[in-house]
Structure formats: C-alpha cells, structure tokens
Design brief:
Blueprint: H1 7-14, H2 18-25, H3 33-46, H4 50-53, E1 64-69, H5 75-90, E2 94-99, H6 104-114, E3 120-123, H7 129-135, E4 141-144, E5 153-159, H8 161-173, E6 179-184, H9 191-202, E7 210-213, H10 217-230, E8 236-239, H11 242-255, E9 260-265, E10 278-281, H12 284-300, E11 311-313, E12 315-317
Helix pairs in contact: 1-2, 1-3, 2-3, 5-12, 8-9, 10-11
Length: 322
C-alpha cells in the first residue's frame, strides 16, 4: 500500500512551511500568487486530497467540514450539532453530519467516506489518534471531549470535576449519605465516574454503589431498578447523562421511591419532565461554536486557541429533582 501523503509532504515539495500550504489551500490572501500556485501544483502532483485537487469534485473556494456525532437521537448531541451548524453557517461553510451510532466500525466507515472530501473533521471519536491519522489524510481534526497529541489535531475539553463535586456537595448538604451512580454501560468507567468517586471520597463516603446504564430513558430506568435491588438503602443518584436521569426519575416514581436524582448535560428536555431535572450543565452552544472556530484556525494556519480557551466548564443547575 502506498504511503499516505500529508500536508508536510506538500510543504517539503513546494519549499514552504506547513502554515503556508494551509493558507494556499484555503485561498487565504496573505501569500503571493506564485507561491500559492507552487503549493497547488505540488498538492496536485502528489495527489494530496484528490477529491478536491486531482478530481475537482469540490470548488477550491468551498469550505466543507465533517461533523461526526455518536447518537443524534440523544438530545445532547443534537444540541451540540445544532450549535456547530449555526457557527459553520455564519462562515458560509458546508457541513456533512454523520451519526456513528457510538460504534468504532461506523466511525471507520464514516472517515473512509468523508476523510478525503472535507477540509476538516470535528466531533466525537472512540478511535485512537493513530487510526484517526490514517483516515483523515492530513486535514485538521478537532476532537470534542477528549485530549489530543498530534499537532494537526486539537480538542475541546470538558471539565466536569468541579460541577460533579458541587452536585455531591449539594446532596450531602441535603442529608444524603448513601449516594449511587448510574454510569454508561461501556466496559471502562467514564470520566464522570472518576469525578463522582473523587467527590464522594472528599466527603469520606463510599462511591461503590454504581450500575451501568444503556444511554436511553429505558436504559436509565432499568439501571436504577437493578441498583436499588442490589443497594436498597440508596437515597440519591447521580447519572452519566440527563437521558439516563430521566429514566431513573420514571423508575423511581413507578416504584414509589422518594429519590433525589441529578443528571449531567443540562438539556432543555430536563425542564419539561416532572419534577424538573437538577443537572450538571454544559453549554452546548459553546462546545459547537468552539469546535468550528478551532477548525477555522487550524485550516487557516493561524495560531490555534489553547489552554483554558478550549475548556468548557460544567456547572450545577438546581431544579426540582434534588
């Protein structure tokens, strides 16, 4: 199999910097015409991103990004996608949205389709950076909710530790000591589980009352039923996300249990359930807008956002369920 051509190969062939290649390919005005043409010729000769430069399937003045979402039926990801689409629309960009059903195989299939047909990829991935690098053909990648290491990658970091600590503090202040968690049903515990454990340990409480939940209303209801059967003394629950929490509220009501429930996400949907859902809330509009802005900077070769500028902090939003 031939070696994958990267933006660095184009830069070497044209005798310019990586940033100059990015500016030339994105039709930025800060470089002279001869240099731009030399870069375009090198990209075409090397076969770099053939869908745009060798086969001409997309106009050179069109910017397209691939937005990869694990589950569009989950309102949290729908809200993030809507924010990203709004931010991209303001820039006149085209957006291709893919739902991977939270499947690594679907992630690979998606990248095989869009990896050479867009200017950047933004979204949620379980694939390793090595796998992502192999299938994104040298273009910028913005990862949401996880760290990055490759130089052409960036990430939007979700910082939820303090928000979860506030949630546990609130439950303890209300007199709860037997607090459980409904985590996701994946093999490995989530970051939220670690934040929950740290918050519980800070109060000298055991964080061992945990059940895994499929990320749906029914999944939350089923997980709460299982947890209460194993740990009937639980009086409060923190959940991996709001959808699971809504299922837990339903199961608690059906069983006649007076249970405090706190979710994580801050969905608008949480305001229409009864009781209204207390949650550790994220600004989904900020997540989507930051992801698009970072993709724009990476494509243009500008200095990317860094540090706290790429962090979205979760905060406790008190309603009626806890």
């Amino acid at each position: 199999m031939s070696q994958r051509i990267t933006i660095n190969d184009v830069a070497s062939a044209a005798g310019v910097s990586r940033q100059t290649v990015s500016r030339a390919l994105n039709d930025k005005g800060e470089i002279d015409g001869d240099t731009k043409q030399r870069v375009l010729d090198a990209a075409k000769e090397l076969g770099y991103r053939p869908s745009r430069f060798a086969r001409g399937l997309v106009r050179p003045d069109t910017t397209s990004i691939g937005l990869v979402i694990p589950d569009l039926l989950n309102p949290f990801f729908t809200e993030v996608a809507a924010a990203a689409l709004e931010a991209a629309r303001a820039k006149g960009w085209h957006v291709v949205v893919y739902d991977t059903a939270d499947s690594v195989d679907e992630e690979l299939s998606t990248l095989q389709v869009i990896g050479s047909q867009v200017d950047a990829v933004v979204g949620y991935f379980n694939l390793s950076e090595t796998q992502l690098d192999q299938h994104t053909h040298g273009i910028p990648v913005v990862l949401i909710g996880r760290e990055h290491h490759a130089t052409r990658f960036s990430s939007i970091r979700i910082e939820g530790a303090q928000g979860v600590r506030s949630a546990v503090d609130h439950l303890v202040a209300a007199g709860h000591r037997r607090i459980g968690m409904l985590d996701h049903a994946h093999a490995e515990p989530s970051d939220k589980h670690q934040w929950f454990c740290d918050a519980m340990n800070a109060h000298g409480l055991s964080p061992d009352k945990v059940a895994g939940a499929v990320q749906s209303v029914d999944g939350g209801a089923d997980a709460l039923t299982r947890l209460l059967k194993a740990q009937p003394d639980v009086t409060a629950i923190f959940t991996f996300n709001d959808i699971i929490a809504i299922g837990a509220l339903r199961a608690a009501r059906r069983s006649g249990r007076d249970l405090a429930v706190i979710g994580f996400d801050g969905l608008q949907l949480g305001t229409v359930v009864d009781p209204a859902l207390t949650t550790v809330a994220l600004d989904t509009r900020k997540i989507g807008a930051l992801a698009v802005e970072q993709a724009a900077r990476l494509m243009a070769g500008d200095e990317p956002l860094s540090g706290e500028d790429l962090v979205v902090q979760a905060v406790l939003l008190l309603r009626e369920s806890a």
